[in-house]
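Priority: medium. Attachment 1 of 2:
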């Protein structure tokens, strides 16, 4: 595909990624490595294409010299419903297990999480970091200086906790003995009414 054929798609991709900030024609010229006149033509083509597609909910607008992809005004009420009733964010059972362990044992290393679960936890840990529910809390003192993980303020917000003291406590007997992953999950589910169905929903 020739560069000029790819240009509208490139611009559309850039505008989608930057979101509300938008991009000026000068910035788009730099990013696409094309002449300003070529970028202007591609923008006009994109704008016209959105306008003639009645089924599209997106249009291309310019605000203060910056081009942005925005939703069409006719869908304002539909968008309002979404914002007022956000869809629950789903997490796998594995991610919930890891989150429960971290919540109770933090700061904790991934090796310690793996040992408790009996399986590798790299994927769930990455997912929880991406969701903003856990973060790095420093390094362990042992060999290799492993990363320590703990929960974030977003975790407290999502689960309606003022602090970690709001987690249901483990009994003294449970705290003094090797703890199974099921115990963490049981306490977690009791606290937040999370269904143990292979996935969990967080509002």
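Attachment 2 of 2:
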């Amino acid at each position: 595909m020739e560069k000029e054929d790819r240009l509208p798609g490139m611009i559309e991709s850039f505008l989608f990624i930057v979101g509300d900030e938008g991009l000026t024609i000068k910035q788009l010229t730099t990013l696409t490595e094309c002449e300003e006149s070529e970028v202007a033509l591609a923008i006009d083509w994109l704008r016209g294409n959105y306008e003639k597609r009645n089924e599209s909910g997106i249009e291309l607008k310019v605000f203060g010299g910056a081009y942005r992809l925005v939703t069409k005004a006719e869908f304002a009420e539909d968008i309002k419903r979404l914002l007022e009733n956000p869809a629950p964010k789903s997490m796998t059972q594995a991610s919930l297990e890891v989150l429960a362990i971290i919540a109770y044992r933090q700061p904790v290393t991934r090796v310690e999480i793996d040992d408790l679960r009996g399986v590798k936890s790299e994927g769930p840990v990455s997912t929880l970091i991406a969701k903003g529910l856990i973060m790095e809390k420093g390094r362990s003192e042992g060999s290799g200086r492993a990363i320590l993980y703990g929960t974030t303020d977003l975790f407290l917000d999502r689960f309606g906790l003022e602090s970690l003291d709001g987690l249901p406590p483990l009994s003294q007997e449970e705290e003094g003995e090797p703890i199974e992953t099921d115990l963490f999950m049981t306490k977690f589910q009791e606290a937040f009414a999370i269904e143990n169905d292979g996935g969990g929903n967080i509002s």
